[in-house]
Amino acid sequence: MMEKPRISITYCTQCNWLLRSGWMAQELLHTFADDLGEVALIPGTGGIFEIKLNDDLIWERKRDGGFPGPKELKQKVRDAIDPERDLGHVDRGSRNEGLDT
C-alpha cells in the first residue's frame, strides 16, 4: 500500500502568519480528507511561507509573488496527487473570479 502524501506549511511566526497557514491547512484537509496522510504546520522566521507536497516545493511566497488563494493551492495539490480529479466549483470560473468569497 502506498503512503498518502504529506503537506507541510512553513510559516513565519514573526509575521503572524499562523492563522493564514491554519486556514490553508483546513482548506486542504476539507477538500482532500481521504487523500492526504498529513498536513503539518511548521513555525519559522524571516518572512518564510512555503508549502511542500512531500519534499517538492509547490508554493514559496517570495518566488511566487505572495500567498496562494485556496483555489490555486487546491488545484496545485490536485494536479500533483490526482490530475484527473474534478474539484467541482473550484475548477469552474465565475463572474467573481479572483474574489475571496
Description of the molecule:
There is one protein chain. The protein is built from 3 helices and 4 strands. With 101 residues, it is an alpha+beta fold. It has helices at 18-31, 61-64, 70-81; strands at 6-12, 38-44, 49-53, 56-60. α1 (18-31) crosses α3 (70-81).
Number of strands: 4
Note the beta-strand portion: 15-25%
- How would you classify the helix and strand content by structural class? alpha+beta
Major beta sheet, strand line-up? 2-1-3-4
Distance between the termini: 38 Å
Largest sheet: 4 strands, mixed
Q: How many H/I helices?
A: 3
Radius of gyration: 14 Å
Shape: globular
Compressed to H and E, one letter per element, the order equals EHEEEHH
Short descriptors:
101 residues, alpha+beta, 4-stranded mixed β-sheet, 4 strands, 30% helix
In short:
With 101 residues, the protein is an alpha+beta fold. It has helices at residues 18-31, 61-64, 70-81; strands at residues 6-12, 38-44, 49-53, 56-60.
SSE order and pairing:
Layout: E1 6-12, H1 18-31, E2 38-44, E3 49-53, E4 56-60, H2 61-64, H3 70-81
Parallel strand pairs: 1-2
Antiparallel strand pairs: 1-3, 3-4
Helix pairs in contact: 1-3
